[in-house]
Design brief:
Elements: H1 5-12, H2 14-18, E1 22-30, E2 36-44, E3 51-59, E4 62-64, H3 79-84, E5 90-93, H4 96-103, E6 109-110, E7 130-134, H5 139-153, E8 158-162, H6 175-181, H7 187-191, E9 195-196, H8 200-203, H9 227-235, H10 239-253, H11 257-272, H12 290-304, H13 309-323, E10 333-338, H14 345-355, E11 359-361, H15 367-377, E12 380-383, H16 394-402, E13 410-415, E14 420-425, E15 430-435, H17 443-446, E16 449-453, H18 473-494, H19 505-520, H20 523-540, H21 546-561, E17 565-567, H22 568-577, H23 594-602, E18 609-613, E19 616-622, H24 627-633, E20 645-646, E21 660-661
Parallel strand pairs: 5-6, 5-7, 7-8, 10-15, 10-16, 11-12, 12-15
Antiparallel strand pairs: 1-2, 2-3, 3-4, 8-9, 13-14, 17-19, 18-19, 20-21
Helix pairs in contact: 9-11, 10-11, 12-13, 13-19, 13-20, 18-19, 19-20
Length: 716
């Protein structure tokens, strides 16, 4: 069972707890949709008053004391609430406990964290809103209030500051202290506190609990906002937030969404002082049929390029995926591979350039340009002739590989004369074309790709030259793809498509966004996408890592000889004797040696043993040593293996039959009673008086409060 955030926080703060710090809260930072992205662990030494606060993030299946590298600024606390209650005034406080305390009263509240965190936060979610700052009663609080005020006013907010000098707070007191002094206070009492710089219309407004849900009277009024101000405000929003308000704002302004897009993009260009290197696609003027659009694109591709039906369907879905790049989590590469020249690879890449979102031809571009271009524009990179330069270009391979998943699409570099460290985001769609790319690209890159294998056309295979295409035909399809992405972005973002079980984990990752797009087009396209995934993934798995090739050949040796054990010398001799395998020339044109075989198998946890075969005793292997490894690393386990196998039915698309092994571990396991949860679920936390003294707790018995149920009595 994987570690929960609560268990991880307990583990990572165990030393501090042993040193006398007591747990107070585990604060959960979320994305716009409420999904956790990092946490803050909060402890306090009740004897000294010192605090122990550390960020925590997920890395793989575990957790570390670290904060993700937010290139555009750290997200605000309770971000999903800010996104869902955009018309409400918000109170900005210093520290998560204060925000939690106000939230318990139904008030929309947030924070960027500690007193020195304002300049590192992303405040854009609050653009144009009405905000009140509640600083702590000390010099650090005053500095924080000024920094937040400057940041909010820069994005068009109306800002006021609570006059803490009139609240009779203790030194360094905050809103938690004020609530302790006023335990019966309501949301209305808080909104009536004395403020500096608050507009009269807002200050005089009476609030009750229902007001915190939909106070429309305090929402920004587009009717009283100039067109220029609206465009400036929209240009300051993140892409996802702009998408959320785009249609409604266009309706209020009386323009088409495409016109608003153009105006906002012009504002961004003016701000950046740069011209976009690609044509901005104007969204199609009416809703489209996804099935008809995808079918037309697939047919169009085959009019110009010699491809199988499944290859054309895969190319179509990948092209569509580039328009959904802002809402998917995995960005599979498109690798257009050919065994020889004149197979149409460059033609297909050129066709991609006419249909994809934000195409950026990248051949002969400097790596510094590409890093900055990807971060600035999130383009679709189109890299032709990759076989001529990418093998020795480690920087480019790093950029390509790191952008496979949104969560890990970052590459660190030092820039400038002062060698300042900088994290570049490399998230985006990327297509590569070349000859025999399996010789030039590492396995890590190939495994991240949808591979389209080209072939030279026969005399009787007729296609139209791309330069003879009807004028405007690709512009129309690209415009319709933009409308497709606009109308179906949310459906694709939340889709959980069925992934063929015969695909490897990495192949399932690659095909998941494409299958999600196919679901928008109905059952026929789901079937077409699945068939394409099965066929192309089967082709791509022919390019194996050396380790997988070795395991596959060893599996074949056991299967063909029908033995349960084999000596090291016999295994090496059989491997080397296979003329079609790589082992006869493995070591610089010399045969694989037993020592090399032993090292390669050791990486999988397989060690040679002393075995008896007939009257001879020698080093060798038992078949059962490979059982778990064959299952984990090979797609098709041996059908005559000595471990039990339950045969599965052939899949509905007539792909190769695959059986699912059931391996029984002969080693017993002593049942272990798990530790109690570190944080109780919200509905299991016993309510206590708000400011009761914390009880003495042993380290092993300590429990933190859940993020949604942070207790006020332990907040400070």
């Amino acid at each position: 069972m994987s570690e929960t955030p609560q268990q991880a926080a307990r583990r990572l703060s165990k030393k501090a707890i042993a040193d006398g710090y007591k747990p107070q809260a585990l604060h959960e930072y979320t994305d716009l949709d409420g999904r956790p992205i990092h946490w803050r662990i909060r402890l306090k030494n009740t004897d000294t008053g010192e605090k122990w606060i550390r960020p925590m993030m997920r890395v793989g299946a575990g957790f570390v004391l670290k904060e993700p590298p937010y290139l555009d600024g750290k997200p605000l606390y309770r971000l999903h609430e800010l996104a869902s209650r955009t018309h409400e005034p918000v109170i900005v406080v210093e520290g998560e406990p204060c925000a939690d305390a106000l939230a318990k009263l139904g008030i929309l509240a947030t924070t960027s964290g500690a007193a020195d965190s304002a300049d590192r936060a992303d405040w854009s979610i609050l653009a144009g809103s009405i905000a009140t700052i509640w600083p702590d009663a000390d010099e650090a609080g005053a500095r924080y209030a000024q920094a937040v005020k400057d940041a909010l006013e820069a994005i068009g907010c109306t800002v006021a500051v609570i006059d803490v000098a009139k609240l009779s707070l203790p030194p360094k007191g905050d809103c938690v202290d004020w609530l302790a002094m006023n335990p019966s206070a309501t949301a209305a009492d808080i909104h009536a506190l004395p403020r500096i710089g608050l507009p009269e219309s807002t200050h005089d407004h009476e609030w009750d609990a229902s007001d915190s849900q939909t106070p429309q009277e305090n929402a920004p009024d587009p009717d009283n906002e100039s067109d220029g101000a609206i465009i400036t405000r929209l240009a300051a929003l993140p892409k996802l937030e702009y998408d959320r308000v785009r249609n409604e704002t266009a309706k209020v302004m009386g323009v088409r969404p495409a016109t608003l897009d153009s105006l906002v993009k012009d504002a961004l260009k003016d701000k950046e002082g740069e011209r976009l290197p690609f044509k901005v696609i104007e969204t199609w003027h009416e809703p489209i049929s996804p099935a008809e659009l995808l079918t037309e694109i697939a047919n169009t591709i085959r009019r110009f390029i010699v491809l199988d039906k499944e290859q054309a369907d895969a190319a179509t879905l990948w092209v569509a995926f580039t328009h959904f790049i802002d809402v998917v989590e995995v960005a599979p590469l498109a690798i257009i591979n050919a065994p020889e020249k004149a197979c149409g690879k460059s033609q297909l890449l050129t066709l991609f350039g006419r249909l994809v979102s934000r195409p950026l031809p990248a051949a002969n571009s400097s790596i510094s340009f590409l890093f900055r271009a990807v971060e600035l524009w999130t383009p679709t990179m189109l890299i032709d002739e990759a076989d001529t330069f990418i093998k020795e270009n480690e920087e480019l391979k790093g950029l390509v590989n790191a952008g496979h998943t949104r969560a890990n699409a970052f590459v660190g570099r030092v820039v400038g004369d002062d060698l300042k460290p900088k994290l570049f985001t490399v998230w985006g769609a990327k297509a590569l074309a070349g000859i025999a790319l399996e010789k030039h690209l590492p396995d890590a890159t190939l495994s991240r790709a949808i591979i389209i294998s080209m072939r030279r056309k026969l005399p009787d295979e007729k296609v139209i030259r791309l330069r003879y295409a009807e004028a405007g035909s690709f512009d129309r399809l690209a415009s319709m793809l933009a409308r497709f992405a606009e109308d179906y972005a949310e459906k694709v973002r939340t889709a959980r498509p069925h992934l063929p079980h015969t695909l490897s984990d990495r192949a399932q990752d690659n095909w998941e966004p494409l299958l999600a797009i196919a679901e928008c087009a109905g059952s026929e396209w789901v079937e077409r996408a699945t068939q394409a995934a099965l066929k192309l993934s089967n082709v791509s798995t022919q390019t194996q890592s050396a380790g997988n090739e070795l395991l596959s050949d060893i599996q074949h040796v056991f299967e063909s000889k029908r033995v349960e054990k084999i000596s090291m010398s016999d295994l090496v001799a059989t491997l080397v004797g296979d003329e079609e395998a790589a082992w006869a020339t493995w070591n610089k044109s010399r045969p694989l040696t037993p020592r090399q075989l032993g090292r390669m198998l050791a990486s999988y946890g397989i060690q040679s043993k002393t075995i008896r075969i007939g009257y001879e005793v020698s080093k060798g292997f038992y078949l059962e040593q490979f059982a778990d490894t064959f299952v984990r690393y090979l797609s098709t386990p041996p059908e005559n293996a000595i471990f039990s196998v339950t045969r599965l039915q052939a899949n509905e698309f007539k792909a190769s039959s695959v059986t699912g092994p059931s391996v029984t571990n002969p080693v017993g396991h002593t049942p272990v009673t798990p530790e109690p949860p570190w944080i109780k679920p919200c509905n299991q936390v016993t309510k206590k008086p708000i400011f009761a003294e914390a009880e003495e707790m042993r380290v092993d018995d300590v429990e933190f409060l859940s993020p949604a149920n942070t207790s006020l009595q332990q907040a400070k």
